C-alpha cells in the first residue's frame, strides 16, 4: 500500500492561523467563555456578492480549502471529504426561528437549504467544479478523524491521488446558550491562558475551519506522513493507558519512540482525567502539547491539533504557548495525537516526518 502525506495545511481559528508563513508568532489571549474565529479578508478569496449569501461556516470552509489547495499547488482534487459536528448551525437556527415566528407559514427555504451539514463540501465542489467523490461525516468529535481515515484508505489503495479533507464548525447564539445552561461552558470568567489550570466543570467554546490536502505522492511542501488513525466511540477511563500502548505496538512503536504527544485538554476537570491518566503515567517523560486553550472546544477542534503537529514536524519547532510540560525536545520525528470529548469519541492519530 502507498504512504499518505499531508501536503498542505490551512487553518481559520480564534487565533491568527490563516497565514501559513507564521506558527503562532502572535497569540491572542481571549477573556470570554465563547471565542470567535479571527477571520481573513474574505474578499481576497470570495467575490463580495457571493460572500454575502454565505454563512460564516461556509466562508471559513471555502477560504481554508482555497489556502490549502494554493499551498499544495493544485487547482483541483480527486475527492472532497468534510467533517462537521453541527453543520451550518446559524442557518439551522435561523430556519427554526422562522418556523416559530411565522407560525409555520410563508417560510423562505434559503436558510433550510444552506443549513444542511454537507453545504460546505458542496460549496467547495461548486467553486472547484469538482465532480469527484464528495462526502461529509457527522460523527461528533470524531467527525474529522472519520474524514482522515476515509481519505487515508483511498490513497493507500491508489483510488485517488489528491484528496481535500477538512473540519468545520461555527458558533450560534441559541445553541451556545443551551451549552451554558447544561454547564458545558464555564460559568466563571476565565482567560484562555489560565484555562488548562482550571478546576471547574465545562470549557470555553470556539469555532473554526481546518483543511488539508492529502496525497500518496510526497511533495516539497509535504508536512508529515499519516501513519495510522484509530477511533473508539467509548473507552473506559481505566483502559486509556493500555489502549494507547496497544495502538503504539500496532505501529511498532513504544512511548520512548514518541517525540511529542498532542492532547485535547480543555480545562474541564471532569473529563481532562482521560488525559491525566496518560500524562501522569506513560507520557510523564514525553513532551506534552495542548491547543484547546487557544481556540476553545468544538466538535472539529481536533484538526487544529493535526495542524499543530504538522507544523511542528515541518518546522522542527514547538512554541512555548503549546507546552504542557517542558522536556527540551530538540527534534521531532513521531507525534501521537489523542482526543476525546466528554468521555466519548476517542481518537488516536500517529504522524511522522516525511
From TrEMBL:
This is 3-oxoacyl-(Acyl-carrier-protein) synthase. It comes from the Bacteria. SUPFAM superfamilies: Thiolase-like. Residues 39-173 form the Beta-ketoacyl synthase-like N-terminal domain. GO terms for biological process: fatty acid biosynthetic process. GO terms for molecular function: 3-oxoacyl-[acyl-carrier-protein] synthase activity. One of its GO terms (cellular component) is cytosol. Coiled coil: none annotated. Pfam families: Ketoacyl-synt_2. InterPro entries: Beta-ketoacyl_synthase, Ketoacyl_synth_N, Thiolase-like. Keywords: Transferase. It comes from Xanthomarina spongicola.
Amino acid at each position: 500500500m502507498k504512504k499518505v502525506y499531508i501536503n498542505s495545511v490551512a487553518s481559520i481559528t480564534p487565533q491568527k492561523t490563516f497565514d501559513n508563513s507564521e506558527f503562532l508568532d502572535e497569540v491572542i489571549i481571549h477573556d470570554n467563555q465563547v471565542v470567535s474565529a479571527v477571520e481573513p479578508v474574505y474578499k481576497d478569496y470570495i467575490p463580495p456578492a457571493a460572500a454575502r449569501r454565505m454563512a460564516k461556516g461556509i466562508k471559513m470552509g471555502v477560504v481554508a480549502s482555497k489556502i490549502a489547495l494554493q499551498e499544495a499547488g493544485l487547482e483541483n482534487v480527486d475527492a472532497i471529504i468534510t467533517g462537521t459536528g453541527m453543520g451550518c448551525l446559524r442557518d439551522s437556527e435561523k430556519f427554526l426561528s422562522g418556523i416559530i415566528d411565522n407560525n409555520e407559514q410563508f417560510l423562505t427555504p434559503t436558510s433550510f437549504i444552506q443549513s444542511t451539514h454537507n453545504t460546505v463540501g458542496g460549496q467547495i465542489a461548486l467553486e472547484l467544479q469538482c465532480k469527484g467523490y464528495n462526502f461529509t461525516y457527522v460523527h461528533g468529535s470524531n467527525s474529522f478523524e472519520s474524514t482522515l481515515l476515509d481519505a487515508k484508505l483511498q490513497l493507500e489503495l491508489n483510488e485517488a491521488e489528491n484528496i481535500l479533507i477538512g473540519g468545520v464548525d461555527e458558533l450560534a447564539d441559541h445553541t451556545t446558550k443551551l451549552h451554558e445552561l447544561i454547564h458545558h461552558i464555564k460559568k466563571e470568567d476565565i482567560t484562555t491562558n489560565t484555562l488548562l489550570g482550571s478546576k471547574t466543570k465545562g470549557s470555553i467554546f470556539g469555532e473554526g475551519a481546518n483543511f488539508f490536502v492529502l496525497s500518496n505522492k510526497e511533495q516539497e511542501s509535504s508536512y508529515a506522513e499519516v501513519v495510522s488513525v484509530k477511533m473508539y466511540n467509548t473507552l473506559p477511563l481505566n483502559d486509556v493507558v493500555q489502549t494507547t500502548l496497544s495502538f503504539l505496538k500496532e505501529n511498532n512503536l513504544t512511548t520512548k519512540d514518541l517525540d511529542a504527544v498532542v492532547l485535547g485538554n480543555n480545562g474541564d476537570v471532569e473529563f481532562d482525567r482521560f488525559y491525566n491518566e496518560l500524562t501522569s503515567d506513560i507520557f510523564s517523560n514525553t513532551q506534552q502539547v495542548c491547543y484547546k486553550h487557544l481556540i476553545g472546544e468544538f466538535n472539529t477542534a481536533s484538526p487544529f491539533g493535526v495542524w499543530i503537529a504538522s507544523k511542528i514536524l515541518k518546522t522542527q519547532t514547538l512554541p512555548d504557548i503549546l507546552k504542557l510540560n517542558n522536556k527540551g525536545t530538540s527534534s521531532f520525528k513521531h507525534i501521537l495525537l489523542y482526543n476525546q470529548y466528554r468521555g466519548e469519541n476517542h481518537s488516536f492519530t500517529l504522524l511522522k516526518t516525511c
